[in-house]
From TrEMBL:
<dbReference type="InterPro" id="IPR011032">
    <property type="entry name" value="GroES-like_sf"/>
</dbReference>
<keyword id="KW-0479">Metal-binding</keyword>
<protein>
    <submittedName>
        <fullName>Alcohol dehydrogenase</fullName>
    </submittedName>
</protein>
<dbReference type="GO" id="GO:0046872">
    <property type="term" value="F:metal ion binding"/>
</dbReference>
<dbReference type="Pfam" id="PF08240">
    <property type="entry name" value="ADH_N"/>
</dbReference>
<feature type="domain" description="Alcohol dehydrogenase-like N-terminal">
    <location>
        <begin position="24"/>
        <end position="140"/>
    </location>
</feature>
<dbReference type="InterPro" id="IPR013154">
    <property type="entry name" value="ADH-like_N"/>
</dbReference>
<dbReference type="InterPro" id="IPR036291">
    <property type="entry name" value="NAD(P)-bd_dom_sf"/>
</dbReference>
<keyword id="KW-0862">Zinc</keyword>
Amino acid sequence: MRELTYVARNTVEWREAPDPKLRGDGEAIVAPVAATSCDVDTAILAGHSFIDPPFALGHECVARVVSTGDAVTVVRPGDLVVVPWSVSCGGCGHCRAGRTAHCTAVPHMAMYGAPIGGTWGGLFSDLVRVPYADAMLVPLPAGLDPVAMASASDNWSLSWRLVAPHLRSRPGARVLVVARGSIGLYVADIARALGASTVLHVDPDPGHREIARGFGAVTAETLDPPIHHGFDIAVEATGRVDQLALAVRSLAPEGVCESAGNHFRPGELPLLDMYLTGVTLRIARDNVRAHIPDALALAGSGTVDPGRVVSHVLDWEQLPEALPEKHLKPVFVRGEGAAAMS
């Protein structure tokens, strides 16, 4: 089989790899049919990763199940499934508590798309081995478009977690989104659908701001100076500490800020301001498996439209040329995936 491999800044190529094999009765082999780039893939391709190439890329996809071990009961060959970005067993203490990104049955930070916590391959591959298939794989509900939901492995479900639980406990909250890509747009859509009284979406890209306005958000190119006590919830998804600082300085007393940015570079936060306001800040690796069912249910409700964030639908064979290009949210579709979606 082939796996798409990051080899140098803005350069990926197909490389041959052995076909994955089932190593136990609880495993599955899947074939991605609609895969997309995560916002962090853009940073990796730009050369900002702390991991040296080469390594297989990709950690967001809807896939078709090819084969399963005898003990797998949740899915069967032919099913369309969401493949979570992190590897988890479902049975350890962390997994049972919903902390699936910290599973103790696998090396710390085991994941697809980067050689962290072992080598698990990437979801821009022709075939992928999924251990703990019953715990990991989530069947795609009937009626959901695999192209629109290609990001459910990470960004869509992460976006649900960044804002939905907070709006549940703070109905009608004012929400600030400081972003540079798809996560911020997903958050804006979800926040308005779940009853935020105001959503301000800050992004320097005019095309992104146009999409956010279509979701009912107010938009701005920059947030400087910050809006004093302006928001109950802030979501930062830029990977820039200066933007995170602006977000937390815009919070109302006892406000909460979620940072989804991968902060590869150091910076300073306004700790005294945060102390005086009573800010809660979480910068966390996402336990996405625990949130995928709720995120898919919201997508199926008709109150949100994740498909509007998809910027391009491209053929699987275009991956080496198209992935390094600056697209908002390209989805790469294989031939059999296109048949499944017709």
